[in-house]
Design brief:
The chain is an alpha+beta fold. The chain has one domain. Helix content is 27%, strand content 29%. The protein is built from 2 helices and 3 strands; from the N terminus they run ααβββ. It has a 3-stranded antiparallel β-sheet with strand order 1-2-3, with helices on one face. Helix 1 packs antiparallel against helix 2 (25-35). It is elongated. The chain starts with a helix and ends in a 5-residue tail after the last strand.
Length: 108
């Protein structure tokens, strides 16, 4: 549960940073990296502007709503290792993902 809450908070905080305007993808990736340091294993490879897959995906700007407005979307995924697995049933890892989309302040 702690690992999932870490993934959830990292996605939310990076999206919030981007929504304040002016944040680069690199600064959002750095924030996610810092916030996820306490996880048992590293996040999968980070990449910018990816459509899907594991790791950290940052899409900015994205258009949401009607009328359309600019937003930032951050997806963070983590492969959580099992402490004890059951071969063939729960061999692991367990993929945890969280996606957050926030409207850019003052953006249109």
């Amino acid at each position: 549960m702690n690992s999932y809450m870490t993934v959830l908070a990292a996605a939310r905080d990076a999206a919030r940073l981007g929504a304040q305007g002016g944040a680069t993808s690199a600064s959002m990736l750095a924030l996610v990296d810092t916030e996820t340091d306490r996880l048992p294993t590293n996040l999968p490879a980070s990449s910018e502007n990816c459509g899907s897959g594991a790791g950290v995906c940052i899409n900015q700007p994205v258009s949401i709503g009607n009328p359309p407005t600019n937003a930032v979307r951050v997806k963070v995924c983590y492969d959580h290792p099992f402490i004890v697995g059951i071969p063939g049933v729960l061999a692991g890892p367990l993929l945890m993902c969280s996606t957050t989309t926030m409207r850019v302040a003052g953006g249109s």
